Amino acid sequence: MTAAHGIIHSEMPQQSEGRMRGFQLWLNLPSKEKMKPASYRDIPAAAIPRVKLTHGGDVKVIAGTLELDGNLTSGPVNSGAARLSTDPLYLDVRLPAGGKFSVPTAVGHNAFLYVYEGNAHVGAAGAAKPLPHRAAGVLSDGDIIRVEAGPEGAHFLLLAARPLREPVVQYGPFVMNTREEIEQALADYRDGRLATAA
User: Fold this and answer.
1) What is the value of pTM for the model shown?
2) How far is it, in rounded angstroms, from Cα 97 to Cα 117?
3) CB–CB of 110/159 below 8 Å?
4) Cα-only R_g, the chain
5) Among positive and negative, which fits the CA dihedral 69, 73, 77, 79?
6) Count of other CB atoms within 10 angstroms of residue 42
7) β-pairing, 71-74 with 7-8?
8) Measured between alpha carbons, how far is 45 from 194 in angstroms, rounded to an integer?
9) How confident is the model at residue 24 (pLDDT cuts 50, 70, 90)?
10) CB of 52 closer than 8 Å to CB of 74
11) What local confidence, expressed as pLDDT, does residue 65 receive?
């Protein structure tokens, strides 16, 4: 969903059995794109490519393009007409115990990992730092990300994007660049000028 000019929505996931886990990621838009029309697109699980890793495990490519062993795999977000100016990379990676994963990343992009099962070590051999279960690690700038799973394996999200380097003012669900823009967003909401998602 791109909230942009504003969209009213409700998040009520449905399931009939089993365990459900959810992650919500918000990407800020550059100031020049904040007032573009809002949009929504459902992406079913079957539309998310899954790349099997040579030494076990796999990667779901949600946004951006994964380059592995000379092969490119693009996710359904940030491709074609849906291209986002922040150029996000959003990967869901599963590694077996001791499994290793490395991926090139754009120099200058901000990146972080969130381990939601198991634990991992992040960084070059000899200098890798531990990242325990339910921990997020903000990564330093570089052109490659290296991860090694701990003895229980690891399941983690890897996210990276171009930084905006613009001021941010947030109030409730509204994110703008100035206090005046926040006040206008609140007025638009109060006066019914936001779109409603289906």
Assistant:
1) 0.87
2) 11
3) no
4) 19
5) positive
6) 7
7) unpaired
8) 29
9) confident
10) no
11) 93
